[in-house]
């Protein structure tokens, strides 16, 4: 089934450029992503039950690929990866649906569909790969499609931003390759299951630290971790809506997933050595990201910086090296994907309608003009600021909880101090989202952009049916996970416990 | 050669096929009327194809064949030596035989389209085949004399090839430059070889190794490493390793583009083969000496090559500098020699270099093929290629991305994985990081180039473009591009087809 | 009983969802929206009666839980109900006040196009408060806790055309959110050490917790309480929140949201009681807030702002009572305050509705035009001032008595000085309360109309607004009867000390009398004019706490944010861009170093070989 999961979007990406006509290409994209989503749902069967071994991959396929290198085509899903797989297929489907009515300039739907599907292949592959080299290959697959997405459909600075994105993240992924090579050199294996099972046994401490450092640096660029984040605001500001959604919704998760799947379980000693630094940078990211948001004028840039803050929470959770922390990080990952996906959809729709993302120009009172779009922005914002009852809360709350009691061997008092600072960051998060809402959504209906737009082409329409179809699933998921986080935690809990067994409890 | 008298002609079949091709082309060129000259190409392709077929046959047979052998004896200093042969067909040889002849087929196809305008068909085909025969000799050579003969046979025709562009002063100039520098490099290498012979008393690689290992008085002699470096310099020149790379950009861009393609692939691959033969066959015990040298030179090559390529506006010059950079990647795994891992590490490093070589040759040949097909070499001129010829632009972009080592250029990606694996296995973490940083720099210019193809021409530039270049791509060229695209895609998904043979091809 | 407890928050929640769906259809749906809202809250109110009746007879708490969030460690979070007498009674109070507000709003927002949204948000608010009241899990409680914050944000910002509404809404959410971060950390700390988030189990684990953990956790939770219950220094949002529609003020700022903070303190009281430091801090906070609120209320011109500051001050009574261990007194005052403050707000709403303004300097003499409103306001004022037999007299006296008892060291674990502090502040506040209420009544309802036009248009509201007010008036007047049964239900004690009552009545008389005399001297002028312009300005501005907050917190944060943004752009990203530029420049430099002609190529090769050879030989 996993082969189908990868083959569908792959075949779609191959065929998409051959589809004649924009309309047909867009429907083609919807069809392929819908089928992929359906396939990913079937993976839910077989998940659950007792966890055997450190990594208990279900639906696994394991065949030789490059025997000369000892590389195998080893894929499978478990509770750690499946939520991300589902998030990916869902967001791709919603993106495809969204482009049905909102095709970004300059059109070229066949190419757009191709690029989105190619990105999907890379993202899904990364999440299901259980061979380090295979993982790396998929990790790199996304780079170019995303570059094209930002460069072709991006704003005026799209090309520069895309280049920055691709070079920066390539640096990250080659560092991952250095890490993988180091692991291979020390163990002679690139199999994730086997390597997780041995839990770093037989790898010298120094090697572990060096390998972890390389992997960590690589994944940190992707995540992104402060201060390796500066590609992100540029990329998001310029990217088209679909690009922003996929970038924030899934791509960033590849970094954190890599840490959880590859770096931490395979190199526990290295993880222990680096974790305090990681935690400090994560919290720095939370605070600096939030502070930056407080003064942003560009909405998309603001949401991008908010991602830096949220991913800081995820990384802090991972840095505690506890099952609680990792669980929380995975949940926060998913929640961030859903919520930020929603936010970028809504903000992108606003930008498409008014042709600007500049807050002062957009003016306040969106709720009065476009109640549905304004309402969605409101929901997305309060979810993102971590309102309990919506998805964003639990992950970040549990991250803080885990920081009260990091894994043995980590400096507890440092983590306690960090969690207090992270709490301040959470308060700042509320501050900047409320500032955003006040400047854009609530308040009296005052908008220079609206005046200009309606003066030119007539009244700006509120969200249409297709847009609602693309967005409502995210709202519903945000509420569902917010009220019943076990939806995700039920999947992740047992596998994470097994994965983190090497750290003790 | 007081051999047994019987010569294993089967072992020499690829060389003989190439040589027969030379004769056939000569005859055809003389006999055929001018109007039918195009047949000459096919004769040439057939010659190279025959060499390829013979090579494949040898490779599939997998037998160990030796030619021109000398019985066991005693070396100066009383070191005993087993029987040695001048030409050996083993897995290493067959691997390179196949690679060289396959690349030569493509190189011939590449020139076919440009022939009437730029390159005289007879001469080009003849020279390429002659050079190929030299290359095929080189990779099977197991003594210094045969090596030099092979190397010179490989190189001599290329002087002419470089200068072959009719009525182009730059081409002629490039030929002369190439000749002069090449002669210098050869002289240095010959000096080194002479020293080696003087020190060891043998020209056979295996006997040199035995002598160097067996005679303890040689161990502390500074002349030994000096001689080794001089020999390396000769091959470094062929491989365009820094600091022997100076000629490459001028010569590549002065020469007809198919010739540049030939130099960057067949000639370079043969150079790598010779280098491997010498350092492993003769200097194998001195990895501590040449390992670090190669590591440093590799790092310098990739860094300088990539940095300079950043600012190139000519596609061929860019590919020339990229070829300097790739020489660095190619040689990087060999830098692990002499590290703690010992021989086991080299058993990974050499296949890595060989595997990388094949994948690189494929992708690079593809890039050259597309540039030739596009008919222009300035990157500015190639702007908007996607509009006039989307398939070609797509193929070129695919190869460029492959050179950068990024999906969908999976072949390039796997190649990158291979060398990382080898260098890290040898404990050269610093070199891996240098490679990592370099692959980022590399992407910057490959991507700039690739992106230009998809950007629209600036207003007003359209008129100045000659009409001919937008014409359809000639059929042989299209075939060549198609073949390489298929090869690159297949090797991307099934790299084992290259890496598998490479893994057992250590000389 | 547990089933009722599950259903109770769900009823208004469903009403809220349906209402939000209706809201999309716009003002046309107002009739249906009103019915849905009334049904949701009304059915909850009816259900709450048996729940409360059953709850007060319970010997021990009744609970049920469903796991919703395993953390991966030993801890787990569950959606749970915990019914005990306090929960039952408070739930009852919440439901009925909410119902009163819902009904009142139908008329009050009769011409408002966005009424359906408003009604749905009030329903959601009610549901959230009920969830807090009935939740048996501290983390799950946070859902209701913060959804209330969200609702207050939405409702305060309801009049979006008002310039002051959006900032007021933002402030309310943000300030309470800052407190909530503390609350969250406190709960997490408590849960981490008690190995559970269930309230009953946490309380059972209190004796085994170290004092440090308890102090830290309760102080952090107290931060959240201060935010929600508008205690110094996080009280600043509440007076501004009057920008919302008046029924909302009644709901949020009298009976529900602000009560939630106190309620949580009461529910977790054993944990607080085990942390003397926290109790001391709470007492100081309560004392400061009490007096501050009373003083500020004295200086306000707007009726609603007077009442808002009065709420701040009254909540401090409850907190003070909790700090000195008078739990039952605190709960008692919570209940009576809910009644009389809702009453006062709704009455103020009637004034606003009828006269079109709440500014006392523009009102006056409304007694004749709005007699009913006048009299119910008097009832509310008596209750608030603590004049028997109105309910507030009993609850406030029991608070003061609790403080008195603590001051005499009769409450174990409570330092006497905190008792004295709360008592002194409480008595001073009694004086202030009487003064500002007298001022409010005199300037609004008595004397002559300052703006005859406004007064002339003034009229009594219709039935939907009057009946809820009258019902609340009855409650405000009569809830004193709880003095008897409440200790029995809640398991504490309520004492009324005759001497203390006399003292406080004297203080009431003094406050009212002085104000009256000042007013008599010049009915058109403000009775507090004698305090001088600087002091009155300070009182009107809430003693400048707001301004201090701006200067000490808001502006520094903004400055740091600007700095961080600049640093991010110039330093962090500057390094990235610089690397890129430097690389390109290096490339150009190297390209220039390319040797120009063939002789030098050859020389280059030769020199290169020699250099490498030398290097190898030398380094060997």
Written description of the protein model:
The complex is a heterotrimer of chains A (505), B (507) and C (620). Chain A is mostly helical and 505 residues long. Chain A has one domain (2-503). Chain A is built from 22 helices and two strands. Chain A has helices at residues 2-15, 22-42, 82-101, 109-128, 132-141, 143-153, 158-187, 192-198, 205-222, 231-238, 241-266, 268-294, 299-319, 323-354, 359-362, 366-369, 371-384, 391-404, 412-441, 448-457, 465-483, 486-499; strands at residues 58-66, 71-77. In chain A, strands 1-2 form a two-stranded antiparallel ribbon. In chain A, helix 9 runs parallel beside helix 12. The longest helix of chain A has 32 residues, at 323-354. Chain A is globular and about 70 Å long. With 507 residues, chain B is mainly alpha-helical. Chain B has 21 helices and four strands. In chain B, helix 9 (247-254) packs antiparallel against helix 10 and helix 12 (315-331) runs antiparallel to helix 18 (429-453). Chain B is globular, with a radius of gyration of 22 Å. The two termini of chain B are 22 Å apart. Chain C has 620 residues and is an all-alpha fold. Among the domains of chain C are: 286-540, no CATH class; 550-619, no CATH class. In chain C, 75% of the residues lie in helices and 3% in strands. Chain C has a two-stranded antiparallel sheet. Chains in contact: A-B, A-C, B-C. Chains A and C meet through helix 7, helix 12, helix 14, helix 17 and helix 18 of A and strand 1, helix 5, helix 6 and helix 25 of C.
Topology:
The complex is a heterotrimer of chains A (505), B (507) and C (620).
Chain A: H1 2-15, H2 22-42, E1 58-66, E2 71-77, H3 82-101, H4 109-128, H5 132-141, H6 143-153, H7 158-187, H8 192-198, H9 205-222, H10 231-238, H11 241-266, H12 268-294, H13 299-319, H14 323-354, H15 359-362, H16 366-369, H17 371-384, H18 391-404, H19 412-441, H20 448-457, H21 465-483, H22 486-499
Antiparallel strand pairs in A: 1-2
Chain B: H1 13-31, H2 38-61, E1 65-70, E2 73-75, E3 79-81, E4 84-89, H3 91-114, H4 121-140, H5 144-162, H6 169-200, H7 205-214, H8 223-239, H9 247-254, H10 257-282, H11 287-309, H12 315-331, H13 343-374, H14 379-382, H15 385-388, H16 390-404, H17 410-425, H18 429-453, H19 461-464, H20 475-493, H21 496-503
Antiparallel strand pairs in B: 1-4, 2-3
Chain C: H1 2-23, H2 30-55, E1 62-70, E2 76-83, H3 85-108, H4 115-134, H5 138-156, H6 165-194, H7 199-205, H8 211-228, H9 237-240, H10 246-255, H11 257-267, H12 269-273, H13 276-299, H14 303-323, H15 327-355, H16 366-369, H17 371-385, H18 391-407, H19 416-445, H20 452-457, H21 463-478, H22 485-490, H23 498-521, H24 533-540, H25 545-592, H26 598-619
Antiparallel strand pairs in C: 1-2
Helix pairs in contact in C: 1-2, 1-4, 2-3, 2-4, 3-4, 3-10, 3-15, 3-21, 4-5, 5-6, 6-8, 8-11, 8-13, 10-15, 11-14, 11-15, 13-14, 13-19, 13-24, 14-15, 14-18, 14-19, 15-17, 15-18, 15-21, 17-19, 17-21, 18-19, 19-23
């Amino acid at each position: 089934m996993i082969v189908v999961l990868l083959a569908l979007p792959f075949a779609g990406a191959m065929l998409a450029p051959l589809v004649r006509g924009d309309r047909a290409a867009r429907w083609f994209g919807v069809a392929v992503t819908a089928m992929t989503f359906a396939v990913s749902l079937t993976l839910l069967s077989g998940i659950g039950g007792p966890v055997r071994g450190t990594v208990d991959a279900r639906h696994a396929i394991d065949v030789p690929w490059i025997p000369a290198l000892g590389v195998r085509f080893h894929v499978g899903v478990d509770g750690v990866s499946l939520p991300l797989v589902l998030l990916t297929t869902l967001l791709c489907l919603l993106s495809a649906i969204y482009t049905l009515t909102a095709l970004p300039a300059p059109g070229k739907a066949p190419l757009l569909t191709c690029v989105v599907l190619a990105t999907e292949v890379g993202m899904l592959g990364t999440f299901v790969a259980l061979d380090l080299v295979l993982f790396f290959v998929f990790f790199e697959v996304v780079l170019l499609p995303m570059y094209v997405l930002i460069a072709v459909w991006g704003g005026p600075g799209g090309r520069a931003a895309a280049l920055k994105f691709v070079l920066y993240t390539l640096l990250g992924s080659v560092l991952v390759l250095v890490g993988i090579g180091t692991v291979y050199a020390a163990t002679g294996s690139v199999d994730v299951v086997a390597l997780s099972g041995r839990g770093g046994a037989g790898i010298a401490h120094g090697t572990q630290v060096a390998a972890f450092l390389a992997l960590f640096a690589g994944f940190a660029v992707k995540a992104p971790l402060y201060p390796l984040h500066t590609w992100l605001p540029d990329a998001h500001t310029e990217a088209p809506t679909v690009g922003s959604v996929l970038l924030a919704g899934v791509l960033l998760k590849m970094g954190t997933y890599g840490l959880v799947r590859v770096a931490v379980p395979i190199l526990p000693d290295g993880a222990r050595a680096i974790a305090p630094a990681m935690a400090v940078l994560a919290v720095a990211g939370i605070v600096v990201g939030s502070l930056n948001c407080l003064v942003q004028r560009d909405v998309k840039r603001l949401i991008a910086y908010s991602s830096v803050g949220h991913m800081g929470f995820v990384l802090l959770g991972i840095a505690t090296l506890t099952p609680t922390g990792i669980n929380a990080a995975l949940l926060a990952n998913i929640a961030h994907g859903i919520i930020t996906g929603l936010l970028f959809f809504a903000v992108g729709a606003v930008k498409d309608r008014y042709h600007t993302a500049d807050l002062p120009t957009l003016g306040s009172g969106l709720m009065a003009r476009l109640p549905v779009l304004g309402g969605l922005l409101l929901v997305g914002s309060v979810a993102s600021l971590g309102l309990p009852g919506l998805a964003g809360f639990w992950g970040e709350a549990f991250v803080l909880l885990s920081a009260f009691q990091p894994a043995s061997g980590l400096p507890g008092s440092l983590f306690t101090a960090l969690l207090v600072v992270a709490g301040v960051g959470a308060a700042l998060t509320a501050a900047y989202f409320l500032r955003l809402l006040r400047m854009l959504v609530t308040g009296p209906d005052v908008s220079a952009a609206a005046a200009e737009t309606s003066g030119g082409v007539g009244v700006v329409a509120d969200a249409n049916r297709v847009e609602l179809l693309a967005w409502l699933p995210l709202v519903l998921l945000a509420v569902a996970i917010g009220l019943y986080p076990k939806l995700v935690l039920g999947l992740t809990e047992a596998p994470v416990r097994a994965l983190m067994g090497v750290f003790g409890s | 050669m007081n051999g047994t008298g019987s010569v294993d002609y089967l072992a020499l079949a690829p060389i003989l096929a190439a040589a027969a091709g030379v004769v056939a082309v000569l005859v055809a060129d003389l006999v055929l009327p001018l109007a039918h000259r195009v047949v000459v190409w096919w004769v040439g392709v057939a010659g190279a194809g025959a060499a390829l077929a013979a090579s494949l046959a040898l490779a599939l047979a997998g037998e160990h064949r030796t030619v021109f052998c000398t019985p066991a004896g005693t070396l100066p200093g009383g070191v005993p030596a087993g029987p040695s042969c001048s030409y050996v067909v083993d897995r290493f040889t067959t691997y390179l035989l196949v690679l060289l002849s396959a690349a030569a087929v493509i190189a011939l196809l590449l020139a076919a389209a440009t022939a009437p305008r730029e390159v005289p068909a007879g001469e080009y085909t003849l020279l390429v085949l002659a050079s190929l025969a030299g290359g095929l000799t080189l990779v099977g050579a197991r003594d210094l004399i045969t090596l030099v003969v092979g190397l010179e046979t490989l190189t001599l025709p290329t002087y002419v090839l470089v200068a072959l562009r009719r009525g182009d002063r730059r081409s002629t100039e490039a030929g002369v430059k190439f000749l002069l520098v090449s002669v210098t490099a050869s002289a240095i290498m010959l000096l080194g070889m002479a020293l080696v012979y003087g020190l060891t008393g043998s020209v056979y690689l295996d006997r040199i190794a035995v002598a160097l290992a067996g005679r303890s008085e040689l161990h502390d002699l500074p002349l030994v490493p000096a001689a080794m470096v001089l020999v390396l310099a000769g091959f470094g020149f062929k491989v365009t390793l820094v600091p022997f790379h100076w000629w490459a950009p001028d010569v590549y861009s002065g020469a007809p583009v198919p010739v540049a393609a030939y130099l960057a692939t067949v000639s370079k691959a043969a150079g790598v083969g010779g280098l491997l033969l010498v350092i492993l066959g003769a200097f194998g015990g001195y990895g501590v000496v040449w390992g670090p040298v190669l590591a440093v030179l590799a790092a310098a090559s990739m860094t300088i090559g990539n940095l300079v390529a950043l600012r190139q506006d000519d596609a061929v010059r860019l590919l020339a500098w990229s070829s300097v950079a790739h020489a660095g990647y190619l040689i990087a795994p060999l830098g692990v020699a002499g590290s703690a891992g010992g021989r086991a590490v080299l058993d990974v490093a050499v296949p890595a270099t060989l595997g990388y070589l094949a994948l690189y040759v494929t992708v690079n040949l593809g890039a050259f093929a597309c540039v030739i097909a596009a008919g222009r070499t300035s990157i500015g001129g190639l702007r908007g290629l996607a509009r006039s010829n989307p398939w070609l632009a797509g193929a070129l972009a695919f190869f460029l991305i492959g050179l950068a080592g990024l999906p969908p250029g999976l072949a390039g990606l796997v190649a990158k994985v291979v060398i990382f694996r080898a260098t890290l296995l040898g404990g050269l973490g610093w070199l891996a990081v240098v490679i990592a940083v370099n692959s980022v720099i590399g992407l910057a210019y490959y991507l700039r180039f690739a992106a230009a193809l998809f950007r629209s021409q600036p207003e007003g530039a359209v008129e100045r473009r000659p009409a001919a270049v937008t014409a359809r791509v000639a059929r042989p060229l299209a075939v060549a591009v198609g073949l390489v695209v298929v090869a690159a895609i297949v090797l991307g998904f099934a790299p084992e087809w290259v890496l598998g043979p490479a893994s057992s091809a250590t000389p | 009983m547990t089933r009722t407890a599950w259903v109770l928050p769900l009823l208004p929640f469903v009403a809220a969802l349906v209402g939000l769906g209706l809201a999309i259809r716009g003002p046309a749906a107002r009739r249906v929206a009103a019915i849905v809202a009334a049904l949701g809250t009304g059915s909850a109110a009816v259900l709450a009666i048996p729940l409360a009746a059953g709850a007060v007879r319970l010997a021990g708490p009744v609970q049920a839980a469903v796991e919703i969030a395993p953390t991966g460690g030993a801890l787990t979070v569950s959606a749970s109900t915990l019914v005990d007498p306090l929960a039952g009674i408070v739930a009852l109070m919440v439901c009925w006040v909410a119902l009163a507000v819902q009904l009142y709003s139908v008329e009050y927002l009769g011409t408002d196009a966005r009424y359906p949204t408003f009604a749905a948000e009030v329903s959601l608010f009610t549901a959230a408060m009920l969830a807090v009241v009935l939740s048996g899990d501290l983390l799950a409680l946070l859902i209701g806790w913060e959804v209330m914050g969200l609702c207050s944000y939405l409702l305060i910002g309801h009049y979006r055309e008002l310039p002051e509404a959006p900032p007021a809404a933002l402030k309310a959410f943000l300030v309470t959110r800052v407190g909530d971060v503390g609350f969250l950390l406190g709960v997490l700390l408590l849960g981490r050490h008690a190995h559970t988030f269930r309230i009953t189990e946490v309380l059972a684990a209190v004796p085994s917790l170290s004092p440090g953990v308890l102090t830290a956790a309760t102080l952090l939770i107290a931060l959240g309480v201060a935010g929600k219950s508008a205690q110094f220094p996080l009280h600043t949002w509440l007076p501004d929140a009057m920008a919302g529609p008046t029924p909302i003020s009644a709901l949020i700022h009298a009976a529900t949201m602000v009560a939630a903070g106190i309620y949580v303190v009461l529910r977790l009281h054993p944990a607080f009681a085990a942390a003397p430091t926290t109790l001391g801090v709470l007492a100081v906070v309560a004392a400061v807030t009490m007096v501050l609120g009373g003083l500020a209320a004295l200086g306000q011109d707007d009726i609603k702002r007077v009442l808002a500051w009065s709420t701040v001050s009254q909540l401090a009574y409850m907190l003070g009572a909790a700090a000195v261990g008078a739990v039952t007194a605190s709960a008692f005052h919570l209940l009576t305050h809910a009644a009389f403050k809702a009453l006062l707000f709704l009455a103020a709403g009637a004034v606003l509705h009828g006269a079109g303004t709440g500014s006392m300097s523009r009102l006056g003499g409304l007694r004749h035009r709005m007699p009913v409103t006048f009299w119910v306001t008097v009832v509310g004022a008596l209750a608030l001032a603590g004049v028997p037999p109105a309910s507030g007299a009993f609850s406030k006296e029991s608070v003061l008595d609790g403080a008195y008892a603590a001051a005499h060291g009769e409450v174990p674990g409570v330092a006497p000085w905190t008792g004295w502090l709360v008592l002194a502040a409480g008595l001073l506040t009694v004086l202030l309360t009487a003064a500002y209420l007298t001022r409010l009544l005199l300037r609004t309802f008595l004397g002559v109309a300052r703006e005859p036009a406004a007064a002339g248009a003034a009229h009594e509201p219709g039935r939907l607004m009057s009946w809820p007010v009258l019902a609340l008036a009855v409650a405000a007047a009569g809830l004193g009867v709880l003095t008897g049964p409440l200790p029995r239900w809640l398991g504490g004690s309520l004492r009324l000390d005759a001497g203390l009552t006399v003292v406080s009545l004297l203080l009431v008389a003094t406050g009212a009398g002085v104000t009256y005399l000042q007013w008599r001297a010049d009915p058109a002028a403000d009775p507090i004019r004698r305090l001088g312009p600087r002091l009155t300005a300070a009182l009107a501005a809430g003693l400048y706490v707001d301004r201090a907050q701006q200067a000490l917190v808001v502006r520094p944060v903004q400055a740091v944010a600007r700095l961080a943004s600049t640093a991010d752009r110039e330093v962090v990203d500057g390094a990235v861009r610089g690397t890129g530029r430097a690389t390109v420049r290096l490339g150009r430099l190297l390209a220039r170093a390319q040797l120009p002609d063939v002789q030098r190529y050859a020389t280059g090769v030769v020199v290169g070989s020699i250099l490498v050879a030398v290097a190898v030989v030398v380094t060997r």
